[in-house]
Amino acid sequence: MYGCIFVFYLQYHLVYLSRRSIMKKIKTKLTKRSLYSVIITSLAIIISITSISISYCYNRKDNDALTTDSINDNSDNPKVYNHLQNELGKHVHVGVSALGRNYTDDALVVAQKLNASDCANNGHKVVYLTFDDGVSTTSTRKVLDILRNYDVHATFFVTGVSLIEGGDRAASLLKQAFNDGHAIGNHSYSHNYKYLFPNRVLNLDNFVADYKENDKLLSKILGPSFVTRVIRCPGGRMSWQGIEALDNYTKENHIAAVDWNALNGDAEGNTKNAQELYNFAVATSQGKELVVLLMHDDYGKQATVDALPKIIEYFKSNGYDFRTLS
Ligand SMILES: [Zn+2]
Fold first, then answer.
1. Residue 323 alpha carbon to ligand 1 centre in Å
2. 80-325: CATH architecture
3. What is the pLDDT of residues 185-201, one digit of tens each?
């Protein structure tokens, strides 16, 4: 803008100087021919400068538009999923396999709804089955079989320690989950509350380092083209202090930190049997069109495995779609 004003200011001076020069020459009684020559030269210079200035202003406007688009391209934009995939290349899997893309939704949108305690979904009932703390070589294998039998898909929030503990068998189950079309989320490497949240306050440096370590392990097993942008905090995002720093970090990095709004209670209070887990899941889902159901598939979760078929049947018979988070 200032450039344009400067260029027009220059043109004004040129016209002024040309006029002065013409008048001077008339006064000195120069020939008509030399007068025309001065006028034509001045006009040529003015036309050239005008073209350059218009071209400059036009290009400047284009650059301004580009900058504005980049600033607005934040994590609130629902197009960010495609944007991220384009950025990383079409061979990169963002949390799901090519098959899994058929069953998945934008985790950022779901996370925002959960954080706002918004369980409505425009009349469309949807349930996100989620399993934390795996992969285990016992529960996860059985959970995968049940999901396949019912032809429904889920999201697995995997820890690094579980993958290390389970060795090759756990790695092979993680690959099976991914290839079956389930979504894979990061649930930290260590799952260590004292390291991640000392004195119940988030330590962002420890948190980021721990999650990156788990990302590396997931890519090592699922291939270098695998990345996930979906995380879940051990104990849940809602449980800790100082979480604003995490919210800023996730927003800057297009990461969705997804909690839950229903649970089967397999990690809370007294040990429950399958019927009690089913009752808990149904009770905490009541009146919600959008349900993110927390369950666990680590070792010792046989009751969760036993309750799962009835839980799936409940949501099916109540008209819910089964979707995943990526
Ligand atoms: Zn956990």
1. 21
2. Alpha-Beta Barrel (3.20)
3. 999 999 999 999 999 99
